[in-house]
Amino acid sequence: MSHALEVSGLEVVYPNGAHALRGLDLSVPRGAVTALVGESGCGKSTVALAVLGLLPRRAGVRGSIRVAGAEVVGASPEELRAVRGKAVGLVPQDPVSACDPLRRVGHHVAESWRVHGEPGPPGGAAELVGRLGITDAHARLRQRPHQWSGGMLHRATIAAAVAHRPPLLVADEPTGSLDADHARTALDVLRSAADAVLLISHDLGVVREHADQVAIIYAGRVVETGVAREVLSRPAHPYTRALVAAIPTPGGGLPTPLPGAPPRATEDLAGCAFAARCPLADHRCAEQPPLVAGVACWAVDR
Ligand SMILES: Nc1ncnc2c1ncn2[C@@H]1O[C@H](COP(=O)(O)OP(=O)(O)OP(=O)(O)O)[C@@H](O)[C@H]1O
What we know:
There is one protein chain. This protein is α/β, with parallel strands linked by helices. The chain has 2 domains: about 1-85 and about 165-180 and about 190-300, Rossmann fold, CATH 3.40.50; about 100-165. Helix content is about 30%, strand content about 20%. The protein has helices at about 45-50, 75-85, 105-115, 125-130, 135-140, 150-160, 180-195, 205-210, 230-235, 240-245, and strands spanning about 5-15, 20-30, 30-35, 60-65, 70, 90, 170, 195-200, 215-220, 220-225. The chain has a 6-stranded mixed beta sheet with strand order 6-7-8-3-9-10, sandwiched between helices. Strand 9 (about 215-220) and strand 10 (about 220-225) form a beta hairpin. Helix 3 (about 105-115) runs parallel beside helix 6 (about 150-160). The longest helix is centred in the middle third of the chain and has 14 residues, at about 180-195. The two termini are about 20 Å apart. The model has no long low-confidence stretch (mean pLDDT about 90). The structure holds adenosine-5'-triphosphate (ATP). Adenosine-5'-triphosphate (ATP) binds near residues 16, 18, 42, 43 and 56. Belongs to the ABC transporter superfamily. It is a peripheral membrane protein. Keywords: ATP-binding, Cell membrane, Membrane, Nucleotide-binding, Transport. It is found in: Cell membrane. This is ABC transporter ATP-binding protein.
């Protein structure tokens, strides 16, 4: 299978010592939406920033990130500028802080073309936000960010990310501030604009509806991966099982909240990071289980 993004053995340590990613392996196939799912703090946004080369300068980064065959780890600022927007587009998690409050919204959308020294198509920004359900787009784009709601600004950042129709889109919680209808439109636009989408989410309902593939991340590593429908209906890793059991289903019993909390990123971890919360943990978990046949767990038969 040909991949739009291949991440292997990715380690990221922030300057404060937070070990956000601990040997992450992830493949995003072309022609599909791949969801990256996990609890808060497990490293999802760090993956997004690493793929675009947007981590703090003093962060320690090891491993490999290949976008359309080009290596991102260790790339020069010029190489990274050429990749951003053209080879990979980012829908950031927080659209409000992504916008300069003094600039018009239209300026932010058009910035996608300007940074590459291109004028962009006439009316291009209005057409893009119009497709995302912003009415009276020309007039609206002359407004400042504070005149737009969070959900509208999210759609402006989606418009900016798809401006060049990059082969890969990384969307960090792109539907967090949208109602179900606008979320569906936004995901349709993402899917139709790019060959491959990495959809970062902690909402398994969104993942079930929109993702083809899924990767479950825990404490900076992928612990289970596969076809989204199959993984969510027959989760194998005890962490995935706990995540699925924690979501309410119509007509189902009461959801079971996930007990305990993930380890802190500043902790030294030996062996399986989930062992402390795992009902199946035994002596084997003192050693880190490798990802085999899509599951990283000693207790799961493969
Ligand atoms: N700039 C930073 N400096 C130091 N530590 C950071 C920084 N950004 C993230 N971290 C830490 O790295 C770990 C992973 O954070 P990250 O934001 O990638 O997780 P996440 O899964 O995206 O969480 P959320 O769903 O809450 O956005 C966390 O422990 C976080 O506190």
